[in-house]
Amino acid sequence: MDTTVTNAQSAPVWGGGNKPLEASYGKMMMWFFILSDALTFSGFLVAYGFSRFKFMESWPIADEVFTHVPFFHGNYPMYYVAFMTFVLIMSSVTMVLAVDAGHKMKKTAVTWYMFLTVIGGIIFVGSQAWEWATFIKGDFGALETKGGRILQFVDANTGERLAIRDFAATLPSHRTQHESKNGIWFSSEKALPSFSLEEVVAGVEAHENVLIRTEKITAEGEKSLLSRAETLGKLSSATQVVEGANLIQNEYGSRLFADFFFFITGFHGFHVFTGVLINLIIFFNVLLGTYEKRGHYEMVEKVGLYWHFVDLVWVFVFTFFYLV
Amino acid sequence: MGHEHKLSIFRGLVTFKSNTQKIWGVLVFLSIITAIEVALGIIKPEVLTQNSFLAMKLLNWIFIILTLVKAYYIAWDFMHLRDEKAGLRRAVVWTGVFLIGYLSFILLVEGNYIYDIYKAGFVKWEF
Questions:
Q1: Could you tell me if B43 and B18 lie in one domain?
Q2: What ipTM does this complex have?
């Protein structure tokens, strides 16, 4: 009986006003949208999985990439993302509480809960912006080989990662950034890295403790470390210095990793951003008493569905991008 | 509107007194799961990373299963699918499960195939 589509006696089947599945038109359409959006997101995540399977042996290890927490120095893998996850779940909770208060027609409670939901959303988007900035700025710097592979550096004594600024030599150089005003108008280049390739190579040769770490993942699930002799041999294949990440270069490893990071978390962040805007609109409507006059708070329930969906997607992004 | 709330979770093992109380209960449960995930992700116990089941590390199985558990409670209690008609619930959930399952299967198999080609082929990728 639970699956019965219409309650036939009461509602007219023709001419509208009928609620199939006992869900109003707006709510049903929100579910349609959520389902199609879920398929879009799964398309992105599965594409990420495809590329990762393709480069299984050399994919960056996420908890070596996302190790920063604002205002703290040091190596804290995952903590900040876990915090962001918690913030989003928490704002989901205030959203359900708003819906619940709406059922009971408590205007003040709905107002407060909507307000808290918006705050949670803003904290999340802010955190994501910070995470992007950190990721783009980079951390240790690396060399890129002719084949597009990334070479990172490790201190042989401590086993810790070494930043190129820690060992690079300072060589006299006259190389400056080529700007379009200095030559033909359509030719220019990006800002030069803080050290030239020659300086990094000279630095590695001068410091006995510097070893190269390649992208290749060993059977233990760690990046493989070259010996000192192999390190010196490998240097000749390097073609440029890479600092930070963007759509074409990525010091953390595979370029696709950075591309998917920007694309998936960016698309999700955009959803959170629009969610915050929609929640704000609803918040002001609640304040103005629009739903009080309408006699029900179903609108809060509908944006609530969208907001929970954004949370739901993040749960998957968190797992497939940061944990697995 | 005017739906009755079903207040039991874990197949009736835990029943809450009110909808508000259920929401907090679910929050506690989701937070615990997230904490477990993060702890496992940082510690990475060797038993779980060195052993695998169906070509996937046990650790990753745990992560994916816990994620699906979280997704279930978000959809069922926060998006109150639990209180909707079974028809609506099934239309939403099974469409998604089937299409996403199919897409992941086909693309992951393909990705793995290309990995094999790169590995065994006669083209040098690292130079």
A1: yes
A2: 0.90
Q: Is B43 on the interface with A (CB under 8 A)?
A: no
Chain A CB contacts of B66 under 8 Å are 319
Is B45 found in the same domain as B17?
yes
What residues of A are in contact with residue B23 (Cβ under 8 Å)?
93, 96-97, 100
B67 and B33 in one domain? yes
Shared-domain flag, residues B59 and B75: yes
Q: Read off the pLDDT band of A155 (50, 70, 90).
A: very high
What stretches of chain B adopt beta strand conformation (E)? 8-9, 14-15, 52-53, 56-57
- Min CA distance, A186 vs chain B (Å)? 32
* Least confident window among A53-67, A178-192, B52-66: A178-192
Spatial distance between the Cα atoms of A228 and A3, rounded to a whole number of angstroms:
69
Tell me if residue B52 falls in helix, strand or coil: strand
In this structure, the answer to whether residues B35 and B55 fall within a common structural domain is yes
Q: Tell me how close the Cα of B10 comes to any Cα of chain A, in angstroms.
A: 19
Total tally of structural domains belonging to chain B: 2
For residues B90 and B66, membership in a common domain is answered with: no
Domain match, B43 and B90 both: no
> Which residue segment(s) compose the domain that B72 sits in?
1-84
Note the Cα A219 to chain centre separation in Å: 28
Taking CB atoms and an 8 Å limit, are A323 and B41 in contact across chains? Answer: yes
What value does the mean pLDDT take over residues A205-230? 89
Long-range CB contact pairs, B42-51, < 8 A, 24+: B42/A63, B42/A77, B42/A78, B44/A221, B49/A221
User: A250: which residues sit within 8 A by CB, 6+ positions away?
Assistant: A60, A150, A242, A257, A258
CB contact residues (below 8 A), chain A span 197-256, against chain B: 221, 237
pTM attached to this predicted model: 0.88
Are B72 and B124 contained in the same domain?
no
* CB-closest option in B24, B30, B42 to A78: B42
Q: At what angle do helices A25-54 and A266-288 cross, to 10 degrees?
A: 160
